[in-house]
């Protein structure tokens, strides 16, 4: 079910690349100059100030920071979307109203729910230069056209509800619950050219510390890299 939803709403890779390129042109990056400086230093110096022997090329670091900046924007949007339980209740409310609307549309389509008043009976002559506009019939046709897209929307919301029910967790939640650290690791490998490590004084850990402004998210990093 989850895969079906992802396939249905997948963003074309070329479109995502275009969005990322547009974001890079933005005059005010999401990451502050101070954080960007910390990230660059993570690749050039250790926490004790020693110069790293295996520092990547400057252009690789630049591309990594650009993608990381975009990724941080996505994380911010994710964090602001609300708690899973709140969203589930919101969906239930919308589903309830959509189902009521769907029932009404089906009644209108079948002529069982009348919403307009016709002053006269419509004429059937096809050659009539001034044919009577049968608003009641037009409303039935409009309702019939509105049923399929609304039904599709309801089905999609119901699918999300089922996925949420299946993904309900018990016990301690994962440290990298939103998979942000995992995504950073992916672009790290792509741009820096080597896999990140859990080394406390390593560049990857330093990058995560700079972005999340935390001491050492050991559990999140180990979950993301394992």
Question: Topology of this protein?
Answer:
Layout: H1 2-8, H2 13-24, H3 33-44, H4 58-79, H5 84-109, H6 135-166, H7 180-192, H8 203-212, H9 218-225
Structural account:
This protein has 226 residues and is mainly α. It folds into two domains: 14-81 and 176-225, no CATH class; 84-120 and 133-166. 63% of the residues lie in helices and 0% in strands. Helix 5 packs antiparallel against helix 6 (135-166) and helix 7 (180-192) crosses helix 9. The longest helix is centred in the middle third of the chain and has 32 residues, at 135-166. The protein is elongated, with a radius of gyration of 27 Å.
Shape: elongated
Question: Could you tell me the number of beta strands?
Answer: 0
End-to-end CA span? 26 Å
> How is the biggest beta sheet arranged?
none
Which segments are poorly predicted (pLDDT under 50) over 5 or more consecutive residues?
none
Mean pLDDT figure: 79
Number of domains: 2
Succession of helices and strands: HHHHHHHHH
* SS strand fraction: under 5%
Q: What's the alpha carbon Rg, rounded to whole Å?
A: 27 Å
- Computed structural class: mainly alpha
